[in-house]
């Protein structure tokens, strides 16, 4: 079992917060930090609060930035380190996101695997997941059955020239996601381990769908009184 880790709450970057808006949580990739994905805010839908979290570990020298879990555990069948990072995100949500009407996660690479792991740990809490150039961690979790039944919407985008994620993990994810989620997937010709404008446009449409469902659910709720 991996040791518990924590999110540095003082380092979290936020946008459009201060009222009970749906919350989109950004989880950066290996060797980056909370400032990286925060630059995507102008491309995200209006009417959503955004929080960009820092990973709990320093990336090993000489790599800059931070890490959600040791990079050498990428293909381990034991998901303990990914789960420890996901648990840290869930504890942050417990303290910081108790009143929001809906939560979605957007992760890149390592952060995408953590985003999926959060949804696997607490399927009822996470309404949608965006997986950019990422993967589903191998191994079984107790929440996987509930996630399969819930069919959480997941967007998975990756490039044909992405040589960072091992092919075995790509193959595993290509089998795992359709079985455990309502998958929207797209492969971008020529894209490396990065994000393109076309992909951002697709992400925007996916998140617009999430927000439309939040609004529809709100309108279906019975009035108090």
TrEMBL record:
GO molecular function terms noted in the UniProt entry: hydrolase activity
Pfam families given in the database record: Abhydrolase_2
Keyword annotations of the record: Hydrolase
Nucleotide-binding found in the keyword field: no
Tree of life domain: Bacteria
SUPFAM superfamilies in UniProt: alpha/beta-Hydrolases
Keyword Transferase: no
Stretches assigned to the Phospholipase/carboxylesterase/thioesterase domain: 20-210
Family indicated by similarity: Belongs to the AB hydrolase superfamily. AB hydrolase 2 family.
Name under which the protein is recorded: Putative hydrolase
Species: Microbacterium azadirachtae
